[in-house]
Please model this.
Amino acid sequence: MNNTRIVRSVVFVTIGYAIVLAIWIGWLMKRTPPGTLPYQLAALVAGFGAALGLAMMIAGRPTREQKELIEHGVEGWATVDAIRRIDDDTAELDLEFTVPGSGSYFGKIVYDIPQSDTSRFEPGTVIAVRVDPAHRERVLLLPRSQGLDE
Model:
């Protein structure tokens, strides 16, 4: 999850909503037919919710670089050798990468891992990866999502 993109989109939508609300209060509210105020408020709130949901959905999509790795990267796997917490939401992973057609190599990645998901990255865990064939240091981790049976 890309938290900075989500925060940016929420701020953008909120600022846009504040502008729309200011225009509505300052200009449109006085010119609307009497008795329609509750409907107008409901439409403003629904519009804000829809815009916020759409913005968060767009912000949660993979970046261009991630899309390129998903489409053109070589499939492989990484075995977790060690995990070190940096803060509550970030950890550094020591990984041994194995990519078909090349030898295994070691690397470190700083990755957003909430405290509650630390068990999914315990030493010995195997994670699917996509590796850029031209630049082995460009790696996309594809951890298995936690299902209902886990």
Summary: The radius of gyration is 23 Å. The mean pLDDT is 88. Strands lie at 74-85, 90-98, 105-112, 126-131, 139-142. The chain is about 40% helix and 25% strand.
